[in-house]
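call fold(seq) -> tokens
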Amino acid sequence: MRDITRKAEASLHFPNPCLKIPSGRREKSNDGVTTLSIVAHAWRADPAGLAICAALLILYLAAGGFSRSSLLWFLAAELFLAAVVCSPLDLLARQYLFTAEAVERVLIALTAPYLFLLSLPPRLSLPVNRYIAWMAGMGALLIWFLPAPLNRALSSEPIRAVEFATLFAAGLMFWWPIHAPSPDRRMPLLPASLLYLAAATVWCSLLGLFLAFAQPSIYSGYANPPDTLHIADSLVVDWSFTRENDQQTGGLLFWIGSATVLLSEVMAVYIRWYRSSSKD
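ret:
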């Protein structure tokens, strides 16, 4: 009976030896709840992202001529972009998880530019070729998923700023033919807008599937992260974010996230077309 008791006590005080945690870092591992709490409090000022927000604010105020509603859209875009780049999501994307990078990519390249474009006054509407706009938006997504540019961006603050700036600008160009400030600069709702969005959805789906099945070793920036939060082991042990699982989850979330944004716009196009046809 005493032997059984001793074995039970020993199992409570010593970790499972089958867990593959490097012995030199075992003391830094956190349980899942502790890790979640650490991540939730990991907000910080990101120089690259805040520099872009400041540049957008200066340009917007210099342009002038905005209404109250457009100003509200601009503030929503600024707050959204600042929240993304200063949130724990960005820190996870820089040091720990490709999954976080994929989610952040959807928010910076597709969602934030959409909000910002809605804030522009009609007099700023410029002619943009729809084919060039599509290639710019989708091409930027592809380029910054290539191993060499992404690995450099993960380790360099200036290159990270260039990544954010080009993704945002390319996203702005992508949405321009559909939501140009002046209605006469927009492409027809049907069928042009639907084909434009459908092509983008197919592109992002293929890109997401490629990322999901790519070898995790292509992104060396996640091989030996700085681990400033001391959660690297816990992400593997408690959350099952191995390099393989992280790569697959990131690719699938990019696919689902981008498809959600683009197909939501497809529904919005149908609604606008229905309303315009009802008026006629």
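Residues 4-29 have pLDDT under 50 and may be disordered.
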